């Protein structure tokens, strides 16, 4: 077809755009799914570590030692942080939120925000988030079942972001490879499938041109157009005759109904 892109080219472009949008949507949904899965996996691992630290401190409390005087607590936190790179910081605080031990020693003696201890009364591990910092709390319970404090583990999502970036890069590479194969093959298939359609469109366009040669398709098309034009002219003339016969105000009665039926 003249005067622009061919039918097959435009159809191929539409299908390519739809395929690209579909691949992008699938990649985005998979990215969000992997993000939730990796964050949950990381939180569960760190929750186990925080619980083990809480259990170690509770064993010292069972010997009659006060939480502030647990021997080796500071060294325990520092060793745990050095052994696990996912951990950003560790804190042991009493039930009032006063920091007793911390891997960042400048925080010793400070008071933590109470929202980090909202779940301490439930005596089970909890998670919290303040800004970009993620955290896990593990309760420390004495031998009488009373909460003495908690182990607070802080971490960030940098490790998750690295794995997400690698997964996203792999998905983009797979998408580009699929598009590089599917788009040319799809365009070739459409070109072959629409061959007869393109020929029909070209013949119709040629038949509709002024002074078209007397081809069978042109003659049939022109005859159909002339017949349709004659029907429309007859209908228009009939409507004009009916409109001329209708008075401005119709009297009520059988004649009005007869005239209305004639008009319909």
UniProtKB/TrEMBL annotation:
Membrane-spanning intervals of the chain: 164-190
Q: Does the keyword Membrane apply?
A: yes
Keyword entries, A-Z: Membrane, Transmembrane, Transmembrane helix
Protein's name in the database: Two-component sensor histidine kinase
The organism encoding this protein is Falsiroseomonas oleicola
């Amino acid at each position: 077809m003249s005067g622009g892109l061919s039918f097959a080219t435009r159809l191929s472009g539409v299908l390519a755009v739809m395929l690209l949008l579909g691949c992008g949507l699938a990649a985005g949904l998979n990215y969000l799914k992997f993000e939730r899965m990796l964050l949950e996996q990381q939180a569960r691992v760190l929750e186990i570590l925080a619980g083990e630290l809480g259990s170690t401190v509770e064993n010292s409390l069972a010997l009659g030692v006060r939480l502030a005087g647990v021997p080796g607590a500071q060294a325990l936190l520092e060793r745990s942080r050095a052994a696990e790179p996912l951990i950003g910081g560790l804190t042991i605080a009493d039930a009032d939120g006063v920091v007793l031990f911390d891997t960042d020693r400048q925080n010793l003696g400070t008071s933590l925000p109470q929202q980090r201890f909202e779940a301490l009364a439930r005596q089970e591990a909890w998670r919290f988030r303040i800004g970009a910092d993620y955290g896990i709390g593990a309760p420390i319970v004495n031998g009488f079942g009373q909460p003495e404090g908690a182990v607070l583990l802080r971490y960030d999502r940098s490790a998750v972001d690295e794995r997400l970036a690698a997964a996203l890069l792999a998905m983009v590479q797979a998408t580009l490879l699929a598009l590089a194969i599917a788009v040319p093959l799809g365009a070739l298939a459409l070109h072959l499938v629409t061959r007869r359609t393109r020929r029909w469109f070209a013949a119709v366009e040629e038949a509709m041109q002024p002074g078209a040669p007397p081809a069978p398709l042109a003659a049939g098309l022109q005859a159909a157009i002339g017949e349709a034009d004659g029907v429309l002219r007859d209908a228009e003339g009939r409507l004009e005759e009916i409109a001329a016969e209708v008075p401005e105000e119709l009297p009520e009665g059988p004649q009005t109904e007869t005239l209305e039926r004639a008009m319909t």
